[in-house]
Amino acid sequence: MSSARITSLSFVLLLLVEMATANLPRQTSSAPAGNGRSAAPAASSANARPADPAKLFQRGQDALTHGQLDEAERDFRAVLQVDPQSGGAYANLGVVYMRRKQWDKALETLQKAEHLMPQVAGIRLNIGLAYYRQNEFLEAIPAFESVVRDQPDAVQPRYLLGLCYFFAERWADAATTLEPLWNQESEHLPYLYVLSNAAHRAGRKDLDDRATTQLIKLSDGSPAYHLFVGKSYLNSEQYDSALKEFQAAAADPKLPFVHFNLGYAYLKLQDFARARDEFLKDAAVEPDLALNYDELGEVYRLMQDDKNAEKSYREALRRDPRMANSHLGLAKIYQHQEKYPAALVEIDAAEKIDPERADVHYVRGRVLLQMGRKAEAKKEMEAALHINRAQMDTGTVPSPELMQDPQ
Length: 407
Known about the structure:
With 407 residues, the chain is mainly α. The chain is built from 22 helices and no strands. The relative contact order is 0.07.
């Protein structure tokens, strides 16, 4: 069983294209627009007849269905030249940009579609997905919440909302949101892994025991089963046990992220050379996963290899500019090299992304102290202590297998 099961969440293409045609104006002239791809989408002179937006839309829909994104974008933009109030065209443009992972453009067009068609839950679902695919879980939550309110029995938005709560460490909300999906999802290991972890951290012993019992019941000795049992051991800081499970999971060379989890277990056991090798193996398989390079940066930094650590952190940020840990890792390198202004720049970047991280304030305090700015350093240390007291929970281990893009 693939760990992608938890995120088999396709874009809401069919819903959008079907509802969108109903919002297009009827043809204003009996003469049809050109059918060829080279035809101009709108009138080329004062005497030319206006384009038929319904035909343009259908042509864009067909192109989108067949993955012809450039053609689809051109046709939907042509629709908007004729009818700037076509919410369906904006919605499907958003899908085009989501397919390209052009998230800013996707959100811009989807939000215009939502303004024109606020009643369509599928548009809000795609807005949530656009944030979710960027790991912007707090931003995604309101969109998913609105869809769940409208469609409380729909599996996809509820699952996504539960995952957002989970990644945002809102354990009680995650458990409450995911529990109603038991009948549909309790035969799937990733669901049980997330539910049991959320329930445990929320103090829901009944639900934790129920999910754990079901997880054991599904034991079939498969690599996927070993992977999620290993994840459970990681979360309970039983690293030797986790390592054995991941080694068993590695029997399936096609199972995603086994090497990542092996690397994480070795890192926690302070076996840095093996951790490095496993993260490098995973990076070879998943070259776009920013977490691999972030963890590699951590390993190299702990091995006092500043050059490769800095390179790895930069690789992580190139793939995901919102990796607060990579900024903080760079700050620690620059602090070690006594490049204090550069360290403060990276600390500021990390705080902007995640202002509630105690270690961000702690490292800033250390840097300021080394710069002789004692009063400011004291404030940062106090802030770090305050956050530490408020956040007794250590959070969950990184789980890239739960974020795998099914496309």
